[in-house]
Amino acid sequence: MGRLAGKVALITGATKGIGETTAKLFAAEGAKVVVTGRNLEDGKRVVENITRNGEIAAFYPLNVRQYDSWEKCIAFVEETFGKLNILINNAGISYRETVEETTPESWDETILTNQTGVFYGMKLGIQAMRKHGEKSAIVSTSSVDGVTGDSVFFSYCAAKAAVQAMTKCAALYCGENGLNIRVNAVAPGYILTPMAYEDARQNGQTIEEYCADFAELHPIGHLGKPEDVANAYLYLVSEEADFITGTTLMVDGGYTAK
Question: Looking at its record, which EC class is this enzyme (predicted)?
Answer without folding.
Answer: oxidoreductase
